[in-house]
């Protein structure tokens, strides 16, 4: 099975582009088409939108998964370019074509949800989560953390902090299962932020302090953690008066 994860660093799309170009040269015919869609994404992330769209136009939809990925990556480039009305039909076409390819199906639903009206975002994320959890494909199942975070954000935006906390706690558990320390820290930060909004100052403070200690141990800083700590200290002083 083609491992796309090892080829991607979303913080460095130029390096990803180089790895993808090398991988294409040594790949079989079908895998080359899949890799071309990823190359288009890497190029688009660097602002070379026309080049990315050109790569997709030159990619042959040899089966349903490749067709779905072409639509998905075309939609992403159009969305990044600010053409939301043109992007949405591409994401919808990707979701329709990806039946039987759960990873792409979930990804497409997630992209549709990002720009959907607030009243339907939740249902789209829940549908994507249902597919991810029921999938036999580990790559699809590992979408649960991102989807749970998005569900939590939707609740947070609506001021529904108890529901947000439940979703963020589930996302934290999913991140721990996946074993990515950096993303797990972000998931914990989301839980702590929800705790602050629920007035659970001491719990939130303890969690943010533990994240700060971990960051210091690896020589990193996160201004979002520092901001939350400052807000929590103010709240704590207010409670002590």
UniProtKB/TrEMBL annotation:
InterPro entries per record: TPR-like_helical_dom_sf
Family matches, as Pfam families: TPR_12, TPR_16
Listed name of the protein: Tetratricopeptide repeat-containing protein
Organism name: Nocardioides psychrotolerans
